[in-house]
C-alpha cells in the first residue's frame, strides 16, 4: 500500500502570508489616523455649510496637531500601499485573487450572497463582489491621495490640480473619496463579523485557531 504524505511546505489557499497581514493592518491604522485627523481639518474650514464632525471623534486636538497626524498617516498609507501593490504583483497574488471580474460575475455573486448561497469555505478565494470592492478601494485610495496632494501642494502640482478641476473641486473630491473609504471600511467590518474565519485568517494567517501539522498516514 502506498504511503500518503502531506507536504509541509504546501499551504492551503486560505492561509494569508505574513506580508499581506502586516500591510493590511498598517493600512488600517493609516486610514484610521487619516480619516479622524481629516475630520478635524475639515472642521476648520467646512465645505458643506454648517456640517461639521463631532470633536470627540476627531484626532489632533487642534488644526496644527491634526495636520501633523494627517501627514504622518499619509506617508504610512502611501509607503505601505506601494509595498502592498509591489508584493502583490511580484508574487502574482494580484492576478490570482483580483481577476477575472465582470459586471455579470459581480451580479451573480451578489445574488448568491443575498440568498445565502455564496460559499465562504476558502477564505483565501475572493468572490467577484469582493474583487470589485477591493479594486474600488484601491482606485478610491489613489484618487484620495491625488486630491490630497492638490490640497496640500496646489502650486507644485498644477497639472494634477487642473485634472481634478481646480483646488475647490479637489476638496470636494477628497471629501467624497474619504466618505467612500469609510463606507467601504464599515462594509468590510460587517462582512468580517459575518464570516469570522476571514478575520482569523487575517490575524493568524489561518482561518482556524488550531494549527495543522504534517503527518504520514500508513495503512
TrEMBL record:
Membrane topology: Multi-pass membrane protein
GO BP term, example: respiratory electron transport chain
Record bears the keyword Thylakoid: no
Gene3D superfamilies found in the cross-reference section: Transmembrane di-heme cytochromes, Chain C (1.20.950.20)
GO molecular-function terms, A-Z: electron transfer activity; heme binding
Subcellular location, record wording: Cell membrane
A Pfam match: Ni_hydr_CYTB
Cleaved signal peptide residues: none
Annotated ranges, domain Cytochrome b561 bacterial/Ni-hydrogenase: 16-203
Protein name from the UniProt record: Cytochrome b/b6 domain-containing protein
